[in-house]
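Students often ask why we bother encoding 3D structure as a string. The short answer is that it lets us treat folding as translation between two languages. Here is a chain of 118 residues written in the first language.
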Amino acid sequence: MEVIHVPRPSNKAMDKDRPANALILAQVSHLQHAERQLPLRYRSDIYTHAIRTEGEAAAYVREVTEAIHQAHADAAKRRAKPARKRGLEIAAAAERPKRKSSSKKKTKKTKTTKRRKR
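And here it is in the second language, the structure alphabet:
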């Protein structure tokens, strides 16, 4: 397979102090909606309406993305089945209790005994 060379972005591509454009602010809005679906312990304390620069938007995107990944990782741990233990358990090595023997002997049922029950 042929390697495709991707050029590095220019130094002007990211300016932390530049005002955020409409596309970045729309992404922040979408992430805010996704963040509202998370449990409270994963939510950030960043007020999204105060985000004005690319640097502030980048910090918010990073924080929310990490919180989403952490929430999914924690949920996967809770859903995971516990590891099955190998080997003998102590209780498995104990003797089995003896069965009670019945004092009644089984008798063959004849036609006469079947008729009596009817």
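Translate back mentally: The helical segments are 22-36, 54-79, 111-117. Keep this in mind for the problem set.
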